[in-house]
Amino acid sequence: MLGIVLNMILISTAVLALVSGIVFFLEEPDTAHVRNFTPLFGGAIFLICAGYSVMGLMPYTQYAFIPRIIGLFGIDIFLFLEFTFLTFELKTKLTIRYIICGFLALLIVFDLIIFGRPHTITYVRYNYHTSYENIGGGAFMYHYAYVCVVAFFMQTFGIQWYKSKKVHRDKRFSAQIMASNYVILLGALPDLFKGLGMEKYPTFLYSIAFAFVYFFFWVAVKQHLLFTPTVKNVCKDVFNSINVPILIFNLDGFISVFNPEAAQKLAIKEDGKPYLRNLFTISDIELMRLIARSKNGWCGQIQTKIKETGEDCTLNCVIRFDNVGEPFCIIGTVLPVSQEITDDKGEAI
Q1: Which residues contact 4 (CB under 8 A, 6 or more apart)?
Q2: What is the pTM of this model?
């Protein structure tokens, strides 16, 4: 009966990991690559725990290798994802990242072929539980040698990740993530040395160990991100408190974001989709020239009038680029004609 209980725990863990990864993806849209990695980690844990739990519950030992391969694939994917995550954190060059990930993927293929074959291990059926005997041999040796190689390089990259952080909070976060990986080693020791009285349930320990690492990562990331919403809220409050109309619009002239001062001075309706031509007396030619220059990275001014009040004003425009150097949006500041925006040298922009 203990086997059934342990396998039910694994199934519950598998579902919880998958759901938590999806929830993180939906609730944290502004966390860059962490948002994508978290559900992938959760999916890998699902494969590990679900695969080995189905293997344990399967009464037919001749087919037990099928769910076991799924669990083994989950382990390989988890290690691959963690290694890739470190290369993202270290901002490794794309070419080097491809080489590292390609080499690791090759090791994973060999691991699945060598260690995942149906007759690599001997399956044994106990009361209500299917397990396997650790008979050693070349397949086991390759698998553990492969895991040790991955662990060594992962630890090396982890140390570099820790050293690359300047803030104590970031250093603590990276250290916590890397230290949690030692739980996997502790979980694999009984399978390697046949100890702790868990000979019948070796897959349970290291499945739970991988799950622990994932949930520790999930909690650590959530705690680490607690600072981000605070900064966003402060920035939003500052933006809303500026008593100068500020507009953020795309390269087609449609306004996406504006502060309360702009809504009041320019009579922008909340339920509408504001357009520059509807707010200012800008001609089509002037607007086309503004957009064309902005696409080339131009920053400058346009003398115009506010349609709502007829007041003369200056629309100061600044282009912003995305991560690949393409024009992303235009930030416009509306000032009376008597005011100008100057640069650090005191010269008008």
Answers
A1: 57, 128, 129
A2: 0.64
Q: Which residues pair with 47 in a beta bridge?
A: none
Instruction: State whether residue 339 is helix, strand or coil.
Output: coil
- What is the mean predicted confidence (pLDDT) over 257-281? 85
DSSP single-letter state for residue 61? G
Compute the distance between CA of residue 92 and CA of residue 86 in angstroms, rounded to an integer.
Answer: 9
Nearest-CA neighbor of 20 among 35, 38, 44, 33? 38
Largest Cα–Cα distance of the chain, in whole Å? Answer: 88
> Alpha helices of 116-137 — where are they, by DSSP H?
none
Q: Is the dihedral of CA 112, 118, 121, 127 positive or negative?
A: positive
Taking the CA atoms of 216, 218, 221 and 225 in sequence, report the sign of the dihedral they define. negative
Q: For residue 272, how far is the Cα from the chain centroid?
A: 34
Beta-carbon contacts of 264 under 8 Å, excluding residues fewer than 6 positions away, are: none
What is the DSSP-derived secondary structure letter of residue 294?
H
Please give the distance of CA 200 from its chain centroid, rounded to a whole number.
37
* Torsion angles phi and psi, residue 347, rounded to 5: -90, 145
In which element (H, E) is residue 213 found?
A: helix 202-224
Please give the residue that has the higher pLDDT: either 202 or 278: 278
CB 292 within 8 A of CB 330: no
Q: How far lies 263's CA from each of 272, 278, 279, in Å?
A: 11, 13, 10
- Of the candidates 75, 74, 20, the residue with the CA atom closest to the CA atom of residue 47: 74
Separation between Cα atoms, residue 140 and residue 192, nearest integer Å: 9
* Cβ(40)–Cβ(21) below 8 Å: yes
**Model pLDDT for residues 22-43, shown as the tens digit of each residue:** 999 998 887 778 889 999 999 9
Inter-residue contact 191 to 205 (CB < 8 Å): yes
49: nearest Cα among 81, 16, 25: 16
